[in-house]
Specification:
The protein is built from 2 helices and 11 strands; from the N terminus they run H-H-E-E-E-E-E-E-E-E-E-E-E. It has one domain: Beta Barrel (Porin), CATH 2.40.160. The two termini are about 30 Å apart. The protein has an 8-stranded antiparallel β-barrel. It is mostly beta strands.
């Protein structure tokens, strides 16, 4: 999905000088505030730990669009840096590998996640001269930075999803524009299998896994840009 988005961006950039006068090109920067909610579970040995998290984040992005006629616009929005979650740490109970173990040991679980290359490819339709609705696909790379006392380690994963939103666009005679918009993002779930080789009571850490049930987000932003 991300390779397709990059190819479309290259196509849009490549046709900038030849087609901007006919179709119109918009470029801009956006400041956004958003909230993301994730829920999932860690499966370790014969234990299951459910968890969910809600976090707020502010971020900026760059935007490139082409208008196709008077109503339709295709665009690409890209966040050029990582969105970092807060680091969480908690004590958990862990059963060790020894067959004579009769009690769980207390271990420290530290987790921090980076969301990289948040990319949105969308189409927008103008309902009126200023009001528009949009929908498209979104992708993000999830980089896990964990230090788990259970011994498990988990790989990074790329998530794909969908988005829809709406906004209001104000154009000035100079070609500058100001846009206010909001959107909802829904990502597909994923399963991450542990890559560690440590032992557990019933097998190895490679049997451990994290199941991400859902990752949803909502954001609103202001865009300042120029039309060519």
């Amino acid at each position: 999905m991300k390779k397709l988005m990059i190819a479309i961006l290259a196509l849009m950039l490549g046709s900038f000088t030849t087609a901007s006068a006919e179709l119109g090109v918009n470029i801009g920067i956006t400041g956004q505030m958003g909230a993301f909610m994730a829920s999932g579970s860690e499966h370790e040995d014969d234990e299951k730990h459910d968890d969910s998290a809600l976090g707020a984040v502010g971020y900026g992005s760059i935007m490139l669009e082409k208008t196709l006629g008077s109503r339709l616009t295709i665009g690409l929005d890209y966040v050029p840096y990582a969105l970092e979650s807060e680091s969480t740490s908690e004590l958990d109970e862990d059963w060790k590998a020894s067959p004579v173990t009769t009690a769980a040991a207390a271990v420290t679980q530290k987790v921090q996640v980076d969301f990289e290359d948040l990319t949105t490819l969308y189409a927008a339709i103008s309902i009126t001269e200023n009001f528009f609705v949009k929908a498209g696909s979104v992708s993000v790379d999830v980089v896990t930075n964990e230090s788990l006392g259970t011994g498990s380690t988990y790989p990074n994963v790329s998530l794909d999803g969908s988005m829809f939103g709406a906004g209001y666009n104000y154009n000035k005679d100079s070609g500058m524009f100001i846009r206010v918009s909001g959107q909802v993002m829904t990502f597909d779930g994923a399963t991450l299998n542990s890559t560690a080789t440590c032992a557990t009571r019933t097998g190895t850490c490679s049997n451990n896994k994290i199941v991400l049930d859902e990752l949803n987000g909502v954001s609103g932003g202001i865009t300042i840009g120029k039309s060519f």
